[in-house]
Specification:
Structural class: alpha/beta
CATH topology: TIM Barrel
Radius of gyration: 20 Å
Number of helices: 15
CATH superfamily: Aldolase class I
Number of domains: 1
Number of strands: 12
Strand order of the largest sheet: 4-11-10-9-8-7-6-5
Order of helices and strands: HHHEEEEHEHEHEHHHHHEHEHEHEHE
Largest sheet: 8 strands, parallel
Distance between the termini: 40 Å
CATH architecture: Alpha-Beta Barrel
Shape: globular
């Protein structure tokens, strides 16, 4: 199997599984506890059917939308995800270049393996930086100031990770950052020599945005869950979020909002957007899927705040359903990380092209000239 055999997200998943050592693949692929929410995130889209309209002129279809102050060519962008150099030696640089080429937003994690400055110098495309609030609050201020200088266009604060989810796959595979050899993992690393050689002989693994302020997670072998539990601040509250919104002073999203009340509070603190998200099913298992929450949240907030759906997106039709229910755009993480692991920048470009084509084809078949035409008349929910 190679890139020419990859036609959808699941194909890229299979190729990534083939090319990555087991601990690395399962870090992308897994969720928390029994992975009920992980699976529910995608399955939830199946409860909803599209209702096409015919005999409309769809000779010219406009996929573009504006989200977080940035016009993008189609309503799907790269969600912030950590440590891209685990999956491919080009890391976040590959992801950022692919997003720029396809005309969409690249989102960068606090836990990136490429620095804010490197990405700022690399691309002038739309860029979103994702914050975590550490116990050392000086880190937060430092990151915000560096993003301003590097030309990032928007920020988001992840609010659902004050403690790490119980990611049992990582316990079983012995996943650590940086990766280390164990009796259990040796055969997997040895059987993937291309990945292992790139990891050993290219740029040293580090959390590039934190290395100058904390050695945790960069110079010692530990699990990412351990880092989260030790370094992230569980006392984080709405005042802290409001502080970040005001300090940034530009487009700002809260990522991890799942309830109507929290969506309303996001408006009150001046956030520009919310990302309805359960962290890809990697935190609270048994929680609702983002798609299941979107209608209720949109009904409550109206046009007072942009709503972005993050979680479970695997097809262009998933994006159409979310937009019809009121989302401004969608983001996805696992979908492009599988591609990154399968083939770097080129593979991300392929999956984004395919998702863009699926969205366009779906809109034509729906009789929708633009994303603005997608509304609740275009969907219906199955009866139980």
């Amino acid at each position: 199997m190679n890139l020419k055999d990859c036609h959808n997200v699941e194909d890229f998943r299979k190729l990534a599984k083939k090319k990555l050592p087991s601990p690395i693949f399962h870090y992308i692929d897994g969720g928390s506890d029994d992975e009920v929410t992980l699976n529910r995130n995608t399955e939830s889209f199946n409860k909803c059917d599209l209702v096409p309209e015919v005999l409309t002129d769809v000779s010219n279809v406009d996929l573009s939308t504006t989200v977080l102050g940035q016009k993008i060519d189609f309503p799907l962008f790269l969600s912030p995800t950590s440590m891209h150099r685990l999956y491919h030696y080009e890391g976040e640089k590959a992801s950022a270049k692919a997003a720029k080429k396809l005309g969409t937003i690249f989102s960068m994690s606090t836990m990136a393996t490429t620095s804010i400055e490197e990405i700022g110098n690399l691309t002038n495309g739309p860029k979103l930086f994702q914050l975590y609030i550490h116990k050392d609050r000086g880190l937060t201020d430092n990151l915000i100031e560096r993003c301003k200088k590097a030309g990032f266009h928007a920020l988001c604060l992840t609010v659902d990770t004050v403690v790490a989810g119980n990611r049992e796959r990582d316990h079983r595979t012995g996943f650590t950052t940086p990766p280390r050899l164990t009796l259990d993992s040796f055969l997997s690393f040895a059987s993937h020599p291309s990945w292992s050689l790139n990891y050993l002989f290219r740029k040293k693994f580090e959390l590039a945005n934190l290395i100058h302020m904390t050695q945790k997670g960069s110079s010692i072998e530990r699990s990412i869950m351990g880092y989260i539990n030790e370094q992230f601040d569980p006392s984080m509250n709405w005042k802290d979020a409001e502080y970040c919104v005001k300090k940034w002073g530009g487009p700002f999203a809260l990522k991890g909002v799942m309830s109507v009340e929290d969506a309303k509070k996001a408006i009150d603190i001046g956030a520009s957007a919310i990302m309805i998200s359960n962290h890809g099913g990697r935190q609270l298992d048994g929680s609702r899927a983002p798609f299941d929450q979107i209608s209720e949240i949109v009904d409550a907030v109206g046009d007072k705040i942009e709503v972005i759906l993050d979680g479970g997106v695997r097809r262009g039709t998933h994006v159409l359903k979310a937009l019809a229910l009121g989302a401004k755009a969608c983001s996805f993480g696992k979908g492009y990380l599988y591609a990154l692991g399968a083939g770097g920048q080129k593979a991300i470009e392929i999956i984004l092209e395919k998702m863009k084509s699926e969205i366009k084809r779906g809109m034509i078949l729906m009789g929708s000239k633009s994303v603005k035409d997608l509304n609740r008349t275009k969907v219906t929910f199955k009866r139980n």
